[in-house]
Write a structure and sequence with these properties.
Shape: globular
Strand content: 5-15%
CATH architecture of the largest domain: Alpha-Beta Barrel
Number of strands: 10
Bound molecules: coenzyme A, magnesium ion
Structural class: alpha/beta
Largest sheet: 8 strands, parallel, barrel
Helix content: 40-55%
Length: 299
């Protein structure tokens, strides 16, 4: 998933607009973009959108951001939406892997109650919105097979640590927020899941968004969240690997496949190719929508 567009869960109008804006996923939000007084209504709007939207491989994945586990709202959120079969639940303010286990158990109960196949609904987690979550970065691995992506947020973390801003005078993130971003990349690799970059809030600054996307691709993120439909095409373009990278990746995968399971070091175009190149090639192939284990025979 390259682009994941947030849509406030109480706005049917925005959901209808979002569905064909080209985003790979929509994050239907029940948390911060919905006022306390509208939480119940938002649950119903999101559930009926999930039920009435046609699903297909081409249509965007539908993810629901529920309220954090310490709000007392998560149970009602899950009861309302899991039965409508979202692709994933995004947990905000995840404070450790134990929260992932807790959410996994709650989703399992709702899946069973509504007759959905066990394990169908995946989990994404925002892991840097609190100092506690950041310091527990290593604990997110091996807690639930549902966990498929980790992402980070700068706004809530600023509030948690008492920072008056998350950026310095030249517009780049200050150290704690750069650490949050780095920990997300590391925690995702450690857990074997996708790292998704945080939102770029200045939704009229397309040059700034593009630069942030390029840095995210370089550093290992596989996608980025958006807050406005106009951001989607820029994110998609940045996270789509260039065709020459895909061609090279396919050649590397074919070389390793031909060399068999005991392949160590190989050579391509006069350069050394070894295991890290293979892993990188698998990554590029997956980002291009190819299954690295099922490529056509190129020999
Ligand atoms: N999803 C779907 N449609 C959206 C959208 C979004 N995230 N953001 C804007 N739009 C729609 C608007 O409704 C508007 O359509 P309309 O003219 O038919 O009403 C159109 O796109 C143009 O919007 P624009 O005028 O440029 O912006 P805005 O001032 O209406 O909205 C925000 C600005 C920030 C309020 C809006 O982008 C938004 O709600 N973003 C998501 C916020 C969110 O979910 N935050 C939580 C996670 S950080
Ligand atoms: Mg928030």
């Amino acid at each position: 998933m390259r682009s994941l567009l947030f849509v406030p869960g109480d706005s049917e109008r925005k959901m209808r607009k979002a569905i064909d804006c080209g985003a790979d996923a929509l994050i239907l939000d029940l948390e911060d973009s919905v006022a306390q007084s509208r939480k119940a209504e938002a649950r119903q709007i999101v559930a009926s959108f999930l039920q009435n939207t046609e699903r297909s491989a081409q249509a965007p994945r539908l993810i629901v951001r529920v309220n954090a586990l310490d709000t007392g709202l998560t149970g009602d959120d899950l009861t309302a939406v899991v039965r409508a079969s979202p692709d994933a639940i995004l947990l905000p303010k995840a404070s450790s892997g134990a929260d992932i286990q807790d959410l996994d158990a709650r989703i399992s109960v709702e899946e069973a109650a509504s007759g959905l196949p066990a394990g169908q609904v995946l989990i994404h987690a925002l892991m840097t919105e609190t100092a506690t979550g950041m310091l527990a970065a290593a604990s997110f691995s091996n807690k639930s097979v549902r966990l498929s992506a980790l992402t980070w947020g700068a706004e809530d973390l600023a509030a948690d640590i008492g920072a008056s801003s998350n950026k310095n005078d030249n517009g780049s993130y200050t150290d704690v927020f750069r650490l949050a971003r780095s920990l997300t990349i590391l925690a995702a690799a450690n857990a074997g899941v996708d790292a998704i970059d945080t939102v770029f809030t200045d939704f009229r600054d397309m040059g700034g968004l593009d630069a942030e996307c390029r840095a995210a691709v370089r550093d290992g993120f596989s996608g980025k969240m958006a807050i406005h439909p106009d951001q989607v095409s820029i994110i998609n373009a940045a996270f789509t690997p260039p065709s020459e990278d895909v061609e090279r990746a396919v050649r590397i995968l074919a070389l390793f496949s031909a060399a068999g399971p005991d392949a160590g070091v190989l050579s391509l175009d006069g350069k050394m190719i070894d295991k890290p190149h293979l892993r990188q090639a698998e990554r590029v192939a997956r980002r291009a929508g190819l299954d690295p284990d099922a490529l056509p025979d190129l020999s």
